[in-house]
Design brief:
Layout (H helix, E strand, L loop, with lengths): L1 E6 L8 H15 L3 E7 L5 E2 L2 E6 L1 E4 L2 E7 L5 H8 L3 E5 L4 H11 L4 E5 L3 H7 L6 H12 L4 E4 L2 H9 L5 E3 L16 H7 L8 E5 L12 H6 L4 E5 L5 H7 L5 E5 L3 H10 L2 E4 L8 H8 L4 E4 L14 E4 L6 H11 L4 H13 L3 H24 L1
Parallel strand pairs: 1-2, 1-7, 2-4, 7-8, 8-9, 9-10, 11-12, 11-14, 12-13, 14-15, 15-16
Antiparallel strand pairs: 3-4, 5-6
Helix pairs in contact: 1-14, 4-5, 7-10, 11-13
């Protein structure tokens, strides 16, 4: 099958969506499918055998790492030359609208997928009054698709409740070969803790942006003064957060990739994740694959992954001391911690990328077959 993939974000951007797309493209190409990626131009022209068609874009004012890219004249010819059997739009916003337009005008079956919980993001950027408008936009765009995919059961239910149709679950995936418990090292622990490897080490990995609510970790540090926090990643809120965490035992590490990132997960005592806006939380699965127990908000797609007291600890979003209590509980559970680590790894092992991509291929085939039957009729 030939798939034209429209995405608002791709390499060199680093985030959970790009990670999912990287592994999906890799496995689709390995399985004999052919992929054309249409994304904001990041200088890349090919990835794992898939052609990447970069489209010029402008940085988003509130989030310069993201680009607004409008399909220019000539995009139709690129699609016609590729001859896709299906168009898949990822988080349709600007570029994705172009994908929807070309699917409709060129009569190509359309699949859409939902990865970023935009209505809740609006609240964190002071645009809460627009939440209803955002839902109407999402409904209008996603209901153009023959199938809409979400990455957690909570998001499937939420989209259905807001009038989005033909919704199904695209199962989670994680690289269990890359992320391994045995990559724990004293050297990495010392680096993350700024030379204090014997102190309890908390880890956050992900975008450093307002909607991730990283500032909610500060009360945890204040309640556990002997603990150290390493924040791995970058984003538009870094400068503000550096000011917020001034005077605490916090290390803003910046981006880590590959084995360094895997070692960071494996070397920490707890992965702490306060975000309430997660559709899935891929970094949680990466941490668990590395055997790092999780402390996370009981919200969004997170309960699909974390079972409280079994492979990590959850806290309620309306409990102001919830994150503190859960983190203390984990750090004090010295006798249980090895069991938590093993259970976290076992949960992650259920969700390899090969299985997730095979499921996606089944969805693709069903949409194409249904379109063929409609055309024949």
């Amino acid at each position: 099958m030939r798939i034209a993939l429209f995405t608002e974000t791709f390499l060199p951007k680093v985030d959970g969506i790009v990670t999912r797309l990287r592994h999906t493209i890799d496995h689709l190409q390995r399985n004999g499918d052919r992929v054309l990626v249409l994304a904001p131009d990041g200088g890349l022209r090919e990835y794992k055998g898939a052609k990447v068609h970069g489209i010029p874009g402008l940085p988003l004012p509130l989030y310069p790492e993201l680009k607004l890219a409008f399909p220019p004249i000539g995009t139709k010819e690129v699609i016609e030359k590729f001859k896709p059997d299906l168009i898949h739009v990822v988080n349709p916003a600007i570029l994705g609208l172009g994908g929807i337009y070309y699917a409709k005008t060129m009569k190509i079956p359309l699949v859409a997928s939902y990865h970023t919980h935009l209505p809740q993001y609006a609240q964190h950027y002071g645009l809460g009054a627009l939440e209803g408008v955002v839902w109407e936009f999402l409904k209008a765009t996603h209901n153009q698709a023959k199938l809409n995919l979400c990455t957690s059961t909570a998001m499937v239910e939420e989209l259905l409740n807001h009038g989005i149709e033909r919704v199904d679950l695209w199962q989670r995936g994680v690289d269990t070969e890359m992320f391994q418990p045995d990559l724990a090292s004293q050297e990495m622990r010392s680096r993350l803790s700024q030379g204090n490897p014997d102190s309890p080490l908390l880890l956050y990995v992900g975008r450093v942006s307002a909607e991730k609510q990283i500032d909610q970790i500060k009360p945890v540090l204040e309640a556990i003064p002997e603990a150290r926090l390493a924040i791995v990643g970058d984003g538009p809120n870094r400068e503000a957060l550096e000011a917020t965490f001034a005077g605490t035992n916090t290390n803003f590490v910046g981006y880590l990739e590959g084995l360094e990132l895997a070692s960071a997960y494996a070397s920490a005592d707890a992965f702490i994740f306060p975000s309430r806006t997660e559709t899935l939380g891929l970094v949680l699965l990466e941490a668990m694959a590395a055997g790092c127990p999780v402390v996370a908000a009981n919200s969004g797609g997170i309960p699909d992954i974390v079972t409280d007291g079994e492979n990590g600890y959850l806290f309620e979003v309306d409990d102001p001391d919830g994150a503190i209590t859960a983190t203390k509980r984990l750090l004090e559970a010295t006798a249980e911690r090895e069991t938590l680590r093993n259970n976290a790894r076992k949960e992650a092992e259920k969700w390899g990328w090969a299985a997730a991509t095979k499921q996606l291929q089944g969805y693709y085939q069903s949409v194409v077959n249904a379109e063929c039957l409609t055309t024949a009729a």
